[in-house]
Specification:
There is one protein chain. With about 450 residues, this protein is mainly α. It has one domain. The chain is about 80% helix and about 0% strand. The longest helix is centred in the C-terminal third of the chain and has 55 residues.
């Protein structure tokens, strides 16, 4: 029996702490298992050697490109659907939910050119792959690209569920998908001998079962389902979603650009330096997932109350978010710093990669105390339809702060200097985010009426 509708919250009147907690806990678990896909793949690929691990590291800009497009459509749709529900416009919310998937699929269509071996090889050669690393890149990328449409369906299904205050459905979908991925990875990669290709095939199969589950649960809950065909009025809703989503996409696209630039710096120190950064990034992401889950919960909460023009409730939610994430991040930092030697054991890398990874993990964790500020700005700005705030801080962190610091420090302290660019950039962007968050919550956004899209002031920063 489907009892998920009974779990839907009233984001406008239920106690603030209860609403955020009810939204955040399933979102945290869902994001944990969503990122577990790549974490598990990285762990098993590391068992294959440094060349496959470096090949996967170089594929991350491609993965982040699709994730960026997906997050733009997902968060744009979630914000607009939540606001429409707050304004008691269920028909508008339904049309938005049905229009998001075609927009996202059209956006990722050009990436299917990478299924052509020559184009794929040229792409990775441009990123710096050579020799055995270049050989390992294509089989992993082939199945990765085929999984992108399924990934798109899952992300839009999650957006629909989140906009209705239901975060349990995405969580259960991720549990199913990861169980499949975790089971198939060792079978396909080692027992059947498919190597690095087996990792991306296992991910594809896990996402496929997640998509099937989401489709069935949305139908059972009588909620809109993502559509795979076009309607005449869809371009209108694409424009609305893109109006907000483009800032999220650009903000997310800064990540693969920043990673590509950083990989270029690390490449001069060899595959071990790149592989160690990949391991550090995986563990850092897993450690910060509780914060990302809470930031994701903040978006529909803020958007719904924005639709109801409940300003004080929004401020209260942000205060609770900062207090909660501030308490959560301290033990996470301790685990990463003190437990680094044990955290890298599952990757079974060679001695050089292991030593560099432990060093990178400890260095990066030092600045995690600043992460809640940037994530609070992200969730609040998206919910208030001011996504350019988080875009500004992403560009500052990855391009203005981290890359120049990496180049400068590398010339003096080698690969260790590159790793130190990460915490310094996080600290600087956290301070910047705190200033912008205060300005956002005390500025002209909080007024007596909702602005129309054409009245949005993009020069607020």
């Amino acid at each position: 029996m489907n009892n998920e509708p009974s779990r839907q919250l009233d984001m406008g009147s239920d106690p603030v702490f209860r609403v955020l907690l009810a939204l955040a806990i399933p979102a945290m678990i869902s994001m944990f298992f969503q990122n577990l896909y790549e974490f598990v793949d990285t762990m098993f690929i590391a068992w294959l050697g440094s060349a496959p691990l470096a090949a996967q590291s170089l594929s991350m800009p491609l993965f982040y490109l699709v994730l960026s497009l997906g997050k733009g459509a997902q968060i744009g749709a979630t914000t607009l659907m939540s606001q429409a529900r707050g304004q008691d416009k269920p028909e508008e919310a339904a049309k938005l939910s049905e229009s998001a998937l075609p927009l996202l699929l059209l956006s990722i269509l050009p990436l299917f050119l990478l299924l052509i071996p020559g184009l794929c090889t040229g792409f990775y050669h441009f990123l710096g792959a050579r020799g055995p690393v270049l050989t390992e890149a294509y089989p992993y990328t082939f199945w990765l690209v085929l999984s992108f449409p399924i990934m798109a369906y899952v992300m839009i299904g999650e957006a629909i569920s989140m906009s209705h205050g239901n975060t349990l459905m995405p969580m259960k979908a991720m549990l199913i998908g990861n169980a499949v991925n975790l089971t198939l990875d060792p079978i396909l990669m080692f027992y059947l001998g498919w190597g690095i290709a087996g990792a991306s095939i296992a991910t594809l199969m896990g996402q496929l079962l997640s998509a099937v589950y989401i489709y069935r649960r949305l139908k059972q809950a009588k909620l809109p389902v993502p559509l795979l065909y076009l309607r005449k009025d869809m371009p209108l809703y694409w424009k609305k979603i893109s109006h907000l989503g483009i800032f999220v996409t650009i903000s997310q696209l800064v990540s693969p650009l920043g990673l590509s630039l950083l990989n270029a710096v690390l490449a001069s120190f060899g595959p071990a330096a790149i592989g160690a950064w990949n391991i550090m990034a995986r563990l850092e992401m897993m450690g910060l997932l509780p914060l990302y889950g809470m930031a994701g919960a903040l978006i529909p909460y803020v958007a719904f109350n924005y639709g109801q023009e409940n300003w004080e409730r929004i401020r209260s939610g942000v205060r609770i978010f900062l207090l909660g994430t501030g308490l959560i991040i301290l033990p996470i930092m301790a685990v990463l710093i003190l437990g680094a030697p044990w955290l890298v054991l599952p990757f079974r890398s060679d001695a050089q990669v292991t030593e560099l990874a432990m060093h990178a993990i400890r260095i990066a964790a030092l600045a995690h105390i600043f992460a809640p500020l940037e994530l609070a700005l992200f969730g609040t700005a998206q919910g208030l339809k001011r996504p350019w705030y988080s875009l500004f801080t992403s560009i500052a962190r990855l391009l203005v702060f981290r890359y120049p610091l990496a180049v400068f420090f590398a010339s003096f302290w080698g690969v260790t200097g590159v790793y130190w660019s990460q915490p310094l950039a996080v600290a600087l962007s956290g301070i910047l985010s705190g200033i912008l968050l205060w300005r956002l919550l005390t500025g002209q956004v909080f007024q007596s009426r909702l602005p129309r899209d054409e009245e949005m002031n993009y020069s607020e920063i």
